[in-house]
Amino acid sequence: MPIRDKTYDVLVAGGGNAALCAAITARQAGASVILVESAPKAFRGGNSRHTRNLRAMHDKPNAVLTDAYTEDEYWDDLLRVTGGNTDESLARMTIRASSGLFGWMRANGVRFQPSLTGTLNLGRTNAFFLGGGKALVNAYYLTAARLGVEILYDSEVISLNMDNGAVRSIDITWRGFPETLHARCVVASAGGFQANLDWMRQYWGDAVDNFVIRGTPYNRGGVLRNMLGQGVAAIGDPTQCHAVALDARAPKFDGGITTRLDSVPFSVVVNRNGDRFYDEGEDVWPKRYAIWGRLIAQQPEQIAYSICDARAFPLFMPSVFPAIVADTLEELAMKLKLDPAKLRDTIDAFNKAVKPGQVFDGSKLDGNATEGLAPNKTNWARAVDKPPFYGYPLRPGITFTYLGVRVNDKAQVLMDNGKPTGNLFASGEIMAGNILGKGYLAGFGMTIGTVFGRIAGQEAARRARN
């Protein structure tokens, strides 16, 4: 067993995008860096392995994004999805910083693919990583290793031992063996607590048994709980989380992006009782997909069903699991274990409420709405009447929780008394609640992690040198 008795300049707790950005930036600033990743090497990278893109401000077209996406539009999008539950100063700082990320990311091994077209509506706002999140994570690990960052896999931070607002030592386990490390500064980038089902149960009760954790099983919230237990200021509602509609046939953990269902805007969604419960066409999918997990979590048995016909089926990316198909709605209901008469009544009522003469356009908000329903569908309302019919069972898919630690614009973690800690910084999901009080914008989690990872790494290296 190696003896690590040196004092590092910076210890980074975590192994995903935010942690890697912090570690690389600190090392490039001249600091000695050790990164502690709880997962084994084959599963390194946290939730970042399952990502695809990053949302970035830009004033004109560039190599990977079309048109322009200004600060004010970006801020307006964020304001709408969060309902104002955000720190405007930190949010705007993040938005502005997003415009300058591409050069740094490319210099550290990340490659981008050409802008997307189609119904995702992301070609103007989101830059997609060539090879997805796994390729991004691998590129950053190669860069970190080349720069001399020491990386520990199968290692868990057990305690950040704090005294008088500063971390004095760090207790970890390395491949099951206890160790104590010393570092002049620490960056906490260890994610939320969504994989800790006992902790989740405190807020959701037994409903968590029907939740699917779409990301890593290693985000159990140990670092977060340890910090909150030592007087670090909390931020965010523990019941709030990034939760999407996943195929109910997905594995309990680590199913990733392929298990997400994008059918909702072009379908009718019913609960276990065969009733609609929310406007499927409220907004374009990147601005509203992350509310559907929470909506489904509030339904009986935490399950729902997306129903569409042959006209709608080609309009969305399918799940990795095949759709359930039938020639009639009654047959589809039986396959989904729904009441056939109830589903027929719900679909018939929906079809009758669709306004005649509307021109369907799946690429934008088309204003095609129903009349007289509660709730109405406000966009992309079109009769579900062309066989065959398709159905998907849906479960709440939890990506990350919003309870985190409060930070300032230097990524310093704040104590309960409002004072910044002496040498503790944070980036990524563990502090995203400062900006995402609720709701989500596609790609924004990666933006927060990249921006604050770089800030935390820079500030930690500067503090360590001084």
Write up what this structure looks like.
With 466 residues, the chain is an alpha/beta fold. The protein has 2 domains: 7-238 and 402-465, FAD/NAD(P)-binding domain; 243-397, Flavocytochrome C3, Chain A, domain 1, CATH 3.90.700. The protein contains 12 helices and 18 strands. It has helices at residues 17-28, 71-82, 88-98, 101-107, 132-147, 197-204, 222-228, 285-288, 292-297, 329-336, 340-353, 444-465; strands at 7-13, 33-36, 53-55, 126-128, 150-152, 155-163, 166-174, 177-188, 212-213, 234-235, 241-247, 268-271, 304-308, 324-326, 389-401, 404-405, 412-414, 420-426. The strands form 4 sheets. Strands 1, 2, 5, 6, 7, 8, 17 and 18 form an 8-stranded mixed sheet that branches. Strands 9, 11, 12, 13, 14 and 15 form a 6-stranded mixed sheet that branches. The radius of gyration is 23 Å and the shape is elongated. The chain starts with 6 loop residues before the first strand and ends with a helix. The model has no long low-confidence stretch (mean pLDDT 95).
